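tool=predict chain=A
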Amino acid sequence: MRRIHYVDSYVLTGDRTCKALLRYARALALANLSDIVQIPVITESGSRAYAHLLIGPASQIFSTPVPDSPDEPLDTDVIEKLEAATRKLQPARPEWPDEMTNVPDFSFDI
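tool=predict ok
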C-alpha cells in the first residue's frame, strides 16, 4: 500500500493504483493538461471508498510506502483507465522498466 501525499493531507491506496496515478499525472503535466480522477482508497476508519483527485501541471503529489499495511484497495478498471489515458497522451513513450520497480505492472489486453 502507498500513501499519496496531496495538498496538506494524504490518501491510502494500492501500489499499482499509485503507480498508474503518478504516470498519468506526469503525462498530464507534460501536456499542460489536468483531469479529475477517481481512485480506490482506504478511509481513516479503515473502510474502502473512492477519492477524487485533481491532477495536472500544478500537482505536487508524491507517494511513500506504508509498511505492514492491510489489504490494498484494488480496482483494475481504474488502473486500466489511468494507463490508457497515459498512453493516449504519450503514445510513443516506451515502457517504464526503471520506474517504481518495487511495484509490478498489470498486463492489459489492448
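The radius of gyration is 13 Å. The CA atoms of residues 42 and 48 lie 5 Å apart.
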